[in-house]
Amino acid sequence: MPPKKSKTEQYKPEEAEKIILSYLKDQYRPYAQADIILNLHGKINKTTMTKCLNDLVESGKILCKSFGKFNCYFCKPMDVTDNGQKLSSLQGSNNVDLDTDLSGYEEDLKRLQTQNITLQKGK
What we know:
Layout: H1 13-27, E1 31-32, H2 33-39, H3 46-59, E2 62-67, E3 70-75, H4 81-122
Antiparallel strand pairs: 1-3, 2-3
């Protein structure tokens, strides 16, 4: 007789919703219900998964697209406008820093070139 499988810990619906939401955000790609169950290694059973996915869709935290009997769940698209504005402001400040560094390096280059010329004349 084969050994019995040890039971995996089952999560409550509130905890399961957090796990599902974080998983979908981390992966940032669409998954079917069965794929999510398999990828979470059976930590959440099918009935809890169905209830949690429906609750998350109703609350607007994730999106669902139906293709006949097949439902595909995915997180909302990320808003990149805020990050773009932050990035442009950072680039602006970096450009100022780089310009001051560049002018300093150009002065050093001119000084070293004049030293090189004087040393070559001295030979």
